[in-house]
Write a structure and sequence with these properties.
- Helix content is 44%, strand content 20%.
- By secondary structure, the chain is an alpha/beta fold.
- The strands form 5 sheets. It has a 6-stranded mixed sheet with strand order 5-6-7-3-8-9, with helices on both faces. A 6-stranded mixed sheet has the order 14-17-18-12-19-20, with helices on both faces. It has a 3-stranded antiparallel sheet with strand order 2-1-4, with no helix packed on it.
- Helix 3 (95-109) packs antiparallel against helix 4.
- The model is unreliable at 294-301 and 535-558 (pLDDT under 50).
């Protein structure tokens, strides 16, 4: 019998007249990896905040196992802006982790006397294996500048720091809200593998369906305030959900037949006798409700006509763009054809968003042109979202863009019907924007883009903060969309469904046109011969494929002198700091705010850094060859 870690009994939560859930009960045991699924606005994040004490509950009981090590990864982590990245990453209750944090500080300060003492303490506590694991986590999440203030981090960088912090602490129970947001595809795959191998129990909210499928062994769905549980991964959940929908449809059909008979009976009753059959009248109304019950998945397939689009869509001619030494495109050429649906993928910072902004005319290329056809009518959904007037009603905001949308078959859809298709029921349509959850606001923004009836959609990270149900509706819409499409997304499942080929941004203006979807691309990429590992990165990552024996100290394996081992540690740290400075200078050069003199100085410093990094890497190689 698995050891229980968490028990929730009859939990209630309401905000005014909005009831999120009532009598919600479930448990979590050791080894459970639970994915929580529910529509936006149904209280997923609220539930996680209640479990972690950030939000009070109206009723019920939450019980954790005594002395459990629990960590919470928030959707939008907030740090003290003056806290360093090092303090944020190593902020946990583990004495070993705190020891590693002090060791890193001493190395950074270059205090040799303190370094000898810290090395002895690391030996005494057997912390070297833990240090290698920690460095693997930090390296894979691209966290190198430990002394940067968290107040200067972007939202994505703060999320990665918070993720590193919860993984380093090795909790017994991890509660996570959208853990894959802002992660590169390689990072997501590494996190999948890490959590699958780890013994940590997990309760998470995520829209990443491949992640759910590969990590979770149990799915919980909150639907209309009720909880449904499925043992198995996301694929098994879909099978059970389909079975549940079929049973519900059969029940609705049966209820409809009974309703017709009851309706005849109701009409035959004299008014005076109405009170004598109250139970049957009540049963009639219950049948009526069951017969009229409709689910989100039963909505009609929405295929819009879209405005006419000609043969000429756009042609990229010799397009070049760079920010300082960072190249986005270099003499890029491409002819986009009618009906094409392209997915753009690549790591953060490789230039995907800059590319679509050049296409839309929001960013100018350094040279070359985008020649866009006269009939093209763009609809652009940006990562940054849209600033709404919070005091506007949802329906009014959409009607200001369009009162109706043409389905192309002689039928028109009103703004209210369109909103209902995207899971805004009538009562929600007449609510004010400020009452919506973050995910509902993203869904509303999506509606404002689509109802404009564009013939060329450009969607930049449309899946962030959208629930699984909304994603299914959006994918269904795009499957019937008759125009052109470009989507930039880290969501592999979404891209697989909507794109017929990929532009893969590798960075440094290397752009590959791949004739397939994300899954086919990852399979093709994994079949290629593996390049030799970078020794410095290999050391930093710990190379878990051949982990060292637990408890073995570095000198037992390396056969290096004590001072040489210290030197190797210093070299690793110095290379990381130099790489971080190099990245900062590259960003500064791309900011467009530097004077001519500052540009020259920064460029000279960049050349010096490259030389220093090469020299220190070669010295590390010399020492590693003797290890």
């Amino acid at each position: 019998m698995p050891n229980p870690l968490l028990q929730i009994d009859r939990l209630d939560k309401s905000f005014g007249d909005l009831t999120l859930f009532r009598d919600l009960s479930f448990g979590l045991a050791e080894g459970d990896r639970i994915g929580l699924i529910a529509p936006n606005g149904s209280g997923k994040t609220t539930l996680l905040n209640m479990l972690t004490g950030r939000e009070p509950c109206d009723g019920g009981r939450i019980v954790f196992r005594h002395h459990i090590r629990m960590a919470y990864l928030e959707q939008a982590p907030a740090f003290d802006p003056e806290m360093s990245v090092l303090d944020a990453c190593f902020d946990c209750d583990s004495e070993t982790v705190r020891l590693i944090a002090r060791y890193e500080e001493v190395i950074a300060a270059g205090n040799r006397d303190a370094m000898d003492e810290m090395t002895s303490l690391m030996d005494l506590h057997g912390a070297w294996d833990c240090e290698r694991r920690v460095k693997q986590i930090l390296t894979r999440l691209k966290i190198t500048d430990f002394h940067r203030k968290t107040g200067t981090l972007s939202g994505g960088q703060a999320k990665r720091v918070a993720l590193a912090g919860v993984l380093i602490g090795e909790p017994e129970l991890l509660i996570a809200d959208e853990p894959t947001n802002h992660l590169d595809p390689d990072m997501v795959e590494w996190l999948e593998e890490y959590l699958s191998r780890s013994s940590v129990s997990l309760l998470m909210v995520t829209h990443d369906r491949y992640f759910l499928d590969r990590v979770c062994n149990r799915i919980l769905e909150i639907d209309d305030g009720r909880l449904f549980s499925c043992k198995g991964n996301y694929t098994r959940f879909l099978e059970m959900r389909a079975e549940r929908a079929e049973a519900r449809n059969a029940e609705s059909e049966k209820a409809a037949n009974l309703l017709r008979k009851e309706l005849e009976w109701m009409r035959r009753q004299p008014q005076a006798r109405g009170t004598k059959a109250k139970s049957r009248v009540d049963a009639f109304h219950a049948l009526e409700e069951r017969a009229q019950h409709r689910r989100g998945e039963q909505l009609i397939r929405l295929t819009t006509r879209g405005s006419r689009i000609g043969k000429k869509i756009f042609e990229a001619k010799e397009v070049s763009k760079r920010f300082g030494d960072i190249r986005i495109t270099e003499k890029f050429n491409y002819i986009f054809t009618r009906g094409e649906k392209m997915g753009i993928v690549g790591n953060n910072g490789s230039g995907k968003t800059t590319f679509v902004k050049m296409l839309l005319g929001l960013e100018r290329p350094d040279s070359g042109t985008f020649d866009v056809g006269e009939t093209v009518r763009f609809g652009y959904y940006s990562q940054e979202g849209l600033l709404f007037d919070e005091q506007t009603k949802v329906i009014d905001l959409v009607r200001d863009i369009a009162e109706v949308i043409d389905l192309g078959d002689g039928h028109l859809l009103t703004a209210s019907q369109f909103l209902q298709h995207f899971l805004f029921p009538p009562e929600k349509q007449h609510s004010y924007v400020y009452k919506l959850s973050g995910g509902e606001k993203r869904r509303l923004y999506l509606c404002t883009v689509l109802i404009g009836n564009p013939n060329f959609l450009v969607l930049d990270e449309p899946t962030n903060d959208l629930d699984v149900v909304t994603l299914n509706v959006l994918e269904e819409y795009l499957a019937g969309f008759r125009g052109c499409l470009i989507t930039v997304s880290h969501d592999r499942c979404f891209t697989d469904k909507v794109a017929d080929h990929l532009l893969v941004f590798h960075g440094d203006a290397q752009i590959q046109d791949f004739p397939g979807n994300c899954t086919q691309y990852r399979a093709w990429k994994s079949s290629l011969p593996k390049p030799p590992a970078d020794p410095v990165k290999g050391k930093a990552s710990g190379r878990e494929e051949t982990p060292p024996s637990r408890g073995r100290r570095p000198e037992e394996k390396k056969r290096l002198t004590f001072k040489e081992r210290q030197e190797m540690g210093e070299l690793e740290r110095e290379v990381e700091l130099l790489e971080a400075e190099k990245e900062e200078i590259s960003l500064s050069l791309s900011s467009g705010t530097l004077s001519a003199g500052e540009l020259t100085d920064q460029s000279n410093r960049l050349s010096q850094l490259i030389t220093l990094i090469d020299g220190k890497t070669m010295r590390w190689l010399e020492l590693s060859e003797r290890a």
